[in-house]
């Protein structure tokens, strides 16, 4: 925030460039904050802080992207690998959970207890971080980077499988398979077979952690689908302003929970999100606010050249995480996404291509 203030006061042209790079994102944040303030929702002040910090992170990434190259990305990849293996070994060898919250969180018997998560609170957040970094690290020259980083590649695959997050692994597999198939169908099919085997290994691993092979429980469909259906049904009975503009930022933890729209959360808490952001957005921001956010992502996706599949993949990954996880409070920890989209307005991509 201090750096952004410095650029606003001393280098206004650069500051305006950062604002112009993310007009739709800024418009969405403004819409979200105003909706909460106008309706005086209980949690809008607290959640607005997360959005304000995410906005500052996006601006910072616009200024600092020239300093990010292969060396920094490779270093971060190994930090993720090392911390992941340390945490996993501590649990498997010494039955010790590295915890930054109440350790009982990892004693509930769910897969979160058994999965590699590094120094993150949840395995999903670890997976999001390392997958974004993997897309940027390998860039558009995947085979060249695989040959250059043989051990990094092998150990990255291992920690991703031990982490066991389907969404990130599936997005990564799809991005590389689709690109390889477009360039060379035969090679693409061979890669598809390998990636299918990896996904099968993942599903088997997750099922073993749960002690059964129930795919619905492994994939956890209901916690994502049912809230969307409940919100759609609830909104269909509301007046049109609520349908189009929503109930305001921070209303999910109170009004939505009171109306039993969630299948995961039952206790009223002003700052609570749900298992994914999609139903929360539809409820809090209505059709207009949700569409504005999706237009922001679509705009970023279509403006990248198709050869920049790693950048397109970063946008796709961000969308999938939005649809399947409660990511809004985590945006401020996702500079890798904002670095990726910062390259849109730059003619020189340094060595991230």
From TrEMBL:
It comes from the Bacteria. Keywords: Membrane, Transmembrane, Transmembrane helix. Coiled coil: none annotated. The chain crosses the membrane at residues 24-40, 47-65, 77-98, 119-139, 151-177, 189-207, 278-297, 309-328. The keyword Transmembrane helix applies. The keyword Amino-acid biosynthesis does not apply. This is Uncharacterized protein. It comes from Psychrosphaera ytuae.
């Amino acid at each position: 925030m201090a750096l952004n203030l410095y650029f606003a006061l001393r280098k206004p042209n650069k500051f305006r460039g950062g604002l112009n790079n993310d007009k739709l994102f800024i418009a969405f944040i403004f819409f979200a904050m105003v909706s909460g303030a106008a309706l005086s929702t209980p949690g809008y002040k607290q959640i607005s802080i997360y959005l304000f910090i995410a906005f500052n992170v996006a601006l910072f990434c616009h200024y600092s992207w020239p300093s990010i190259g292969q060396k920094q990305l490779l270093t971060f990849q190994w930090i993720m690998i090392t911390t992941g293996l340390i945490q996993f070994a501590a649990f498997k060898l010494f039955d010790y959970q590295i915890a930054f919250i109440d350790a009982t969180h990892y004693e509930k018997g769910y897969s979160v207890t058994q999965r590699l998560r590094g120094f993150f609170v949840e395995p999903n957040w670890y997976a999001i971080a390392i997958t974004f970094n993997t897309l940027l690290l390998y860039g558009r020259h995947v085979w060249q980077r695989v040959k250059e980083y043989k051990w990094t590649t092998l150990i990255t695959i291992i920690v991703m499988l031990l982490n066991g997050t389907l969404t990130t692994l599936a997005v990564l597999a799809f991005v590389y398979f689709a690109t390889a198939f477009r360039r060379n169908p035969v090679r693409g099919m061979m890669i598809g077979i390998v990636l299918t085997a990896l996904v099968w290994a993942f599903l088997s691993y997750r099922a073993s952690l749960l002690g059964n092979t129930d795919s619905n429980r492994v994939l956890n469909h209901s916690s994502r689908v049912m809230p969307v259906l409940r919100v759609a049904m609830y909104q269909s009975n509301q007046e049109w302003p609520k349908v189009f503009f929503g109930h305001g930022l921070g209303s999910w933890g109170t009004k939505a929970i009171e109306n039993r729209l969630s299948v995961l959360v039952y206790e009223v808490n002003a700052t609570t999100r749900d298992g994914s952001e999609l139903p929360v957005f539809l409820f809090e921001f209505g059709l207009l606010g949700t569409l504005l956010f999706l237009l922001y992502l679509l705009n970023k996706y279509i403006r990248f050249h198709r050869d920049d599949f790693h950048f397109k993949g970063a946008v796709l990954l961000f969308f999938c995480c939005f649809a399947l996880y409660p990511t809004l409070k985590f945006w401020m920890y996702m500079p890798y996404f904002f670095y990726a989209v910062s390259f849109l307005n730059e003619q020189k991509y340094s060595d991230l291509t």
